[in-house]
Specification:
Length: 133
Amino acid sequence: MEILYYVFPVVFGLLLGIFLSKRFGPQAHKKNENLVVLEWPEFKKNMRKGQLIDIRKQDEVEKDKIKGARNFSLRVLKSKHQTKVRKDLPLYLYCNNGKKSYKAGNVLLKKGFKKVYILKGGFPATKMTFEEN
């Protein structure tokens, strides 16, 4: 019985180490080549080649949006009964800051979407002007 006091912590430590390495190790954050983050000029140049989707809240979209963008909540996009967004065309997603779009992009790729492009910095990036010296 005394041996369990020594074996249990070792086994527990090994299992915990394996779990943490899978969750947070280098392979856990492997980049997906089908999820691409684009700066506004590149996003703008290509966004008409696919489906432009705004995943911000409805009241934010009503104030201002990119012309031609359709608004869907993340919940709707993740729904298995969603049929309004085609899986065979690339998606161009934007939100308020890019974080929600990035998470949504990963979820959508797992659901079978082929290519997802994210606007870096989200919708505010469309309003930035860059002064040239």
